[in-house]
Amino acid sequence: xxxxxxxxxxxxxxxxxxxxxxxxxxxxxxxxxxxxxxxxxxxxxxxxxxxxxxxxxxxxxxxxxxxxxxxxxxxxxxxxxxxxxxxxxxxxxxxxxxxxxxxxxxxxxxxxxxxxxxxxxxxxxxxxxxxxxxxxxxxxxxxxxxxxxxxxxxxxxxxxxxxxxxxxxxxxxxxxxxxxxxxxxxxxxxxxxxxxxxxxxxxxxxxxxxxxxxxxxxxxxxxxxxxxxxxxxxxxxxxxxxxxxxxxxxxxxxxxxxxxxxxxxxxxxxxxxxxxxxxxxxxxxxxxxxxxxxxxxxxxxxxxxxxxxxxxxxxxxxxxxxxxxxxxxxxxxxxxxxxxxxxxxxxxxxxxxxxxxxxxxxxxxxxxxxxxxxxxxxxxxxxxxxxxxxxxxxxxxxxxxxxxxxxxxxxxxxxxxxxxxxxxxxxxxxxxxxxxxxxxxxxxxxxxxxxxxxxxxxxxxxxxxxxxxxxxxxxxxxxxxxxxxxxxxxxxxxxxxxxxxxxxxxxxxxxxxxxxxxxxxxxxxxxxxxxxxxxxxxxxxxxxxxxxxxxxxxxxxxxxxxxxxxxx
Length: 568
Ligand SMILES: [Zn+2]
Known about the structure:
single chain; Rossmann fold; three-stranded mixed beta sheet
């Protein structure tokens, strides 16, 4: 039998006490139950805890601290650990010991000399005046009187003034921690009196490690994907993550699956989000709206979907700007997102994120919850930035097709590649008027081909000219390729009724006619007909287009684009 040393015995006793303490708080939320009790247990804030530990070791504790940072990142928790550490009666170097009377009193919420003020509910100057009077009395039992003022930015101006007077001449027995989520609202005079620590959103890996640890101790079996989603959902707030895990544990019994988390959060699979981004990249409105519709029909929450989309696009933005991208990606996800990031210019990515971010907040007030999402999608595809296509092409990996817009345009770009030199174009164009004359207006198919061909050859240039006048009209006309040229009438084939309507508006029509005439060197009028591009559509696609064209959302989106055009 191995003899029990004093050290081992002490450790066993300590661990048993901790266990019983934790067991006795089963009714508490996880975040309270698993609240860190030492600096080492604080997750993701090493830059803060290490500095504080060093200060404790070298007795360089100051009288006023400012802890700033997002909610749920450990500000008050760290303040309480500091309160224990400065008053700890233990003789170890790395305080708090969590064993002495002082440490226990703080842990159990009965420390007389630890005063916590929630400025969010005590905004009056009286509370601070009260603090000013009482702070001068010596602590009852502890070495230091410790004040934690949470949400300190909520104090009124006069309360701040009163606080400042205390900060200017703090009694030697007092330590104050001011905690805030909004440090910019704190007067500079107060800031200058504090040693400031900025708490950061907790990195995903740290959060997952912490959740994994809690799960093990709680006897929960949590799928890795479920943990990942919980952590990601909590966007840097450990408190949110722990609360979520807590809810899931009572919901799912001993095992927590990704599907359960998704059901509980109303999230869609990340595959749907990934596909949606692909449709955005290729400006495929029909597929995108279809995807949104299916996700909603499958029970996804529109706000959640929008949030996930923003999160994903943000990932692409990081990918584009830092090359490494977000830290939480697997190699596979990284490759996939790198590919998608190349389909967007930085400008377009930024404006798309803004659109969906706005959609996330608009969902609450929308008459139909998915409407803002659909509008954002349409708007994001209607106004691609000028350099999108070229950027996408030049960045694409060899062998990969550049993102295509719609089939109509693919035809055009195909022709652009075969486009003859300007010189031969002019030579070829010459016979055209003659052939029209020969047939005396009754134009045969062959006769009409030459001016049509010439128009098609110049189409890219015409689009560019229209774009400089009004990029929204250009976005519409991209999907309305020329179908025929008869005399001075150019017939454009619109894929959707609202495109036709838009082009028939006087302003748009005149703009298009002017640019066509200018580049073709002769006066043209335009006429718009409705119909699919000849022979290029499968019936299913045509049906999809038809139902899309009837969708009021698409119309609304276009009108939105039209309005923006008016502002320019
Ligand atoms: Zn202690």
